[in-house]
Amino acid sequence: MQAKLPMLLTTVALAICVPVNAHHSFAAVFDVDVSVAVSGSVTKVEWMNPHAWIYVDVEDDNGDSENWAFELGSPNGLMRRGWSRKSIQVGDAISVAGYRARDGSNRGNVKSIVLANGKELTGMSSVGE
User: Fold this and answer.
1) Is the backbone peptide bond immediately before 50 cis, with ω within 30 degrees of 0?
2) Would the pTM count as exceeding 0.85?
3) In Å, how far from its chain's centre is CA 5?
4) Beta bridge partners of 105
5) Beta bridge partners of 112
6) d(C-alpha 1, C-alpha 100), whole Å
7) Minimal CA–CA distance to 42: which of 52, 34, 33?
8) Residue 115's Cα: distance from chain center in Å?
9) How confident is residue 30, by pLDDT bands cut at 50, 70 and 90?
10) In CATH, what is the architecture of 26-122?
11) Could you check whether the bond before residue 75 is cis, i.e. omega within 30 degrees of 0?
């Protein structure tokens, strides 16, 4: 038993030290009372759990480019609503409507996305659209 104790303690210590990427509450990160609507060019698409993300370069009021990050639903949920990994690609021109991050950063939770061809996709927002 004494030989197993150091191994057990090491395992417990490593488990405690591993960073955890916790799932968050919508209300903790995004403000349902502060909407955001932007248009721009897709720079990155992350199709991963627990949420997919889309990054968009948007021109600000001064003509400078800002990169926005938009959270979507889970890939599985998006696929049930007609999305695929090819629905939005880097370089696509899109318009995004959603809810702004509480901290005022260039992040949002997607309510809907309109593609250049006029097709609208819902983002499976956590507020139950």
Assistant:
1) yes
2) no
3) 42
4) none
5) 97, 122
6) 55
7) 52
8) 18
9) confident
10) Beta Barrel (2.40)
11) no
